[in-house]
Amino acid sequence: MAMNEQTPFGAAIEFAENPENRCPCVLVLDVSSSMSGAPIRELQQGLKQYADELLSDSIARKRVEVAIITFGDSVRTESPFSTADSLLVPQLHPNGVTPMAGALLEAVRMVEERKAEYRSHGVQFYRPWIILITDGAPTDGDSLWATAVAELTRVTDQKGCTLFVVGVSGADFQKLGELPAMNGPQKLDGTRFKDMFLWLSQSQKAVSRSSPGDQIALPAPQWIVTS
Q1: How far apart are alpha carbons 148 and 155 in whole angstroms?
Q2: Which of helix, strand or coil describes residue 167?
Q3: Are 97 and 32 in contact (CB under 8 A)?
Q4: I want to staple 90 with a disulfide (CB 3.0 to 4.6 A). Which of 78, 80, 173, 199 is the partner?
């Protein structure tokens, strides 16, 4: 359990010990049954590499905060917001269907709650990122999906977060296209999760070295299908 869940003074202690600006990121990972085999293995390895890359950078390890949500048999918060030195990479087990809408709504809730904590403790922060990775389409109902799309549209329109959507082979790109993702949904080239997470860590290292509000040019993704 994270310190800020153990005691009402946890967040104050956390920010006193590390008063650095924060770059929050929520990974929303599809672990439905269709991700079995190579996709889930490569996703697991990419996730581990991502954590190692952040940990090896003296600035990013203090400023980038990662939360992990999985969705398959249920929507689960595998890790609350944690800097690299305390981030626990979960073991991913594919099972169930694709409750994507519920997972995205939980991501928005976590982002809004974390931003409120930053503000209440005077901690500056960069615009949060939500990264969705899926090989399917939402299975938790049209109504909940419409709510998720509307809520993400509201938050991104207000510059409250940036949404990135990565579709694996088999993903419903027409459905994913309804989300307000930066540059639209991107199709992963095969199972190049390691390359994707390397891009993500490099991007966040660049952002963490800037000042909140600065415009940062992200490296071009080399892991997507371009034709």
Answers
A1: 11
A2: strand
A3: yes
A4: 78
Q: Write out the DSSP string of 161-202.
A: -EEEEEEPTT--HHHHTTS--TTS-EEBSTT-HHHHHHHHHH
Task: Give pLDDT tens digits for 56-73.
Answer: 999 999 999 999 999 999
Report if residue 157 sits inside a domain.
no
SS3 27: strand
End-to-end CA distance of the chain: 44
Note whether 155 and 161 are within 8 A (CB).
yes
Asked, for residue 165, whether it belongs to a domain, the answer is no
Structural domain count, the chain: 1
Domain around 182: 25-152+170-208
> What would the pLDDT profile of 13-44 be if each residue is shown by its tens digit?
889 999 999 999 999 999 999 999 999 999 99
Residue 37 belongs to domain with CATH number? 3.40.50.410
**195 and 158 in contact (C-beta within 8 Å)?**
no
Measured between alpha carbons, how far is 36 from 196 in angstroms, rounded to an integer? 19
Spell 131-153 as b/e; 16+ CB within 10 A means b.
Answer: bbbbbbbbbbeeebbeebbebbe
Place of tokens 């697991």: 44
CA distance 7 to 13: 10
